[in-house]
Amino acid sequence: MATHDDKLRVRTERLPEFLDGQLRPEFRQLKLEAECVAKGVELYHAAERELADLPPGRKLLREIIVPLVKLVEDAKDEAKAARSGGGLGAPIKWHKLILVDDAPAMAAITALAALRSVTQPPTTNDDEADKPNYFTRLVDEVAREIGDWIEQREQARTHGANPDELGHRAAAALENRIAVGTVSEWPPGDRIVLGTKLLELLGQTGHFRFALNEDRGEDYETPRVIEIAPDIAEKLDVLSFRAEAAKPRLLPMLCRPLPWQDEKKKPAECRGGYLTINRPLVRPGLHEHTATLDAPMSAHDRVALTILQNTAWRINKRLLDVLRQTFENWLPPFKTPRSPTPKLPPRLQYEEWNALDDLRRAALNRERAKIHKKRRAKRSAQRRRRAKRDRLLDQIVVADLFRDEAKIYFPWSIDFRGRAYPIPMAGPHPQSDDAGRSLLEFANGEMLGERGWHWLRIHAANCAGKDKLTHEERLNWIEERKREIIAVAAAPLSNTWWAEHDAQGKPKIDKPWGFLAACFELAEAWKLVDPTLYTSHLPIALDGSCNGLQHLAALTRDEEIGRLVNMTATNERQDIYEIVARDVAEIVATDARSNSQPNNIARLWHRAFQSEGVARKVVKQPIMTTPYGSTDRGVRNQILDVIDDGGAVPVDFEGQEWGAANYLQTVICRVRKRRLARPMAFMEWLKNIAGRLANDGLAIAWNTPNHSNRVQRYLKTKSRRYTSKLLGEVSYDERTGEIDARKQRSGVAPNFVHSFDSAHLLAIVLGCYDENERRVGSISCVHDSIAVPAADIDTLARVIRQEFIEIYQYDYYLAEIGNQAPDEPMPKHGNLDISQVADNPFFFN
Question: CA 606 → CA 591, 602, 649, 799, distances in Å?
């Protein structure tokens, strides 16, 4: 019987087409990569007679770039004089400006980065969008983009072409990419002073200002938020204007991305992805971790990443048209109920306050604190809506750009744990939100067949939130609504039940845009006499059942946890969240009947748990995040988030929210410790090993089942400040070179689990391509959710289980990590039979 290692070797040998002969650049892609900065430079050089014909967005860019070029040139002259000792004293800190001799390019890069910063949220996560637009992040981004431009320019100069006119020499340029000293390789302090100086000059143009973060208070000196003039900000909400002035820099590709190569080099030296834009194989961060290794990624994983890159996509034009009309007219699902901002009661005069007794004063303080909390929540909701609007604008702008392309591609990279991410994260991409993912469909469609027709309808029901029903019940739900679904597909803006919200502003359909995309395909399939003959382009996903716990159950061979996360041979679906919720509700009910503290809070929770689904909703996040290092404090904050989520908990804690969260946190953690004893003991073992190594000044390292190397090396940091004349102090962190023992302990368990779930995913990708019975041509993923065409779902389900069994049939991985601290005893394992996942239909569902 072939071993797991034999299969890895054979697969790599059988896929040579991904490792050679793929450097066939398309000149449109080369131009696309260079045009962002090049067009800004063209605007600067545009003749006056051409200005009248410029669209409004391009005129704005020129108004910003022209004065900024003059300011940059003056600063460069000052830097050169200082460096050459021209009477100005020692070289100034931003002297590296002289490395770039193209002031228009620097001005264009700075202006475009600033415009994107005020229009594009930092992530695709609504919760993350609540964070302010940090100034330091923008400063660093400007410097890194300058570095990218240096490398592109040097490549083009070496081969006798401009970046926007690479011509017939482009192939040679790709084969001989030059490793110059890019800004991305400079120390953080150098990038900060360069970026700060350029933004300081940008502020002098009058179009931008750097304001204090309103949530920090007026005495906070560091400028944290970049703002643009109100009239320009209003224009940037118009799609056509935004497409001209603030298009995202990193975009999908018009040709296949370059396969990741040079496996024996450091990640920064590996080449792959874009044709001329240099992005490292391992995503950069303050802590380098795996990026310090010479060969972090095995040939197996590099081929899998290349297969992800080779999946061809196209824009779902029908959904794009609906999204555009919905957005421009602010119709559902964007027009949601909004509550008025609560007003603070007037402050009492000094005499009135003194006349009150202590109880009344405390009551007034609680009332004001409660209103303050609601006002903060209101501001957070406004920021999230703003971020969502900006994200949708970018999705529409980018989708419009590629709407007529037969095929587009996404280059992918990994983080230090091995998790795969598309490199362009603005606009629609495979890991975007519901709207962003639904704007994409596979370019290569496949005929449904009987099983594909089954899975397309199951997918539609899942998007509608019916995923807890049996398959038969989901199919019936779709068939009962056949007429309504056809009506939605024919006129989605007239039949808007798919986009409606409840009184709390939550969509009645879980994934409205995914559901609409499914409605379009269902309606087309129903037009045929035999719907199974329809060619579908829709990605259909299978998701793990609490995937982090599935990996921990496999690592520890825990039979009980394996049963609760659908890893044992049974046709009965298990729901670990519901089981934990039942345990928590029983303890709360007991406490509610007792006379001890905090029985009043327990009674409130007991009343809340009488409503269906509330207990499960409260415990789901703490249990789901346990494999990823969720602490007691983190559990409390997760409970507070549920309490603050209007209508999620149907009781009023009357100012006792913190006490309610603290009480329930202790109950959940008690149940969690009992139910998840073996996985938590395993996580503690990893922490102890990482802690002992850290005390000796050593990082912790391990190999994944695919033979990729992973290193966790958190270093202590020091906060540094750079003072700008106009912008004040800019804070940033620098590594000290000393291992941070606390972070090493807290980070190792979640990072270890993430590295194994990513190894499983990449094995699935390659396994689907290597499947003998049916090779899967298109595949994508969002961590533990893998999507393929509907016709390939059965193949995917089989491969998921096969690869999981192959990964975990051995446990030498644990011996390797345990050998780094042999005196640390490994927790006792259970007797879970991993092969049983092959017989559980709910393992990935």
Answer: 9, 6, 11, 44
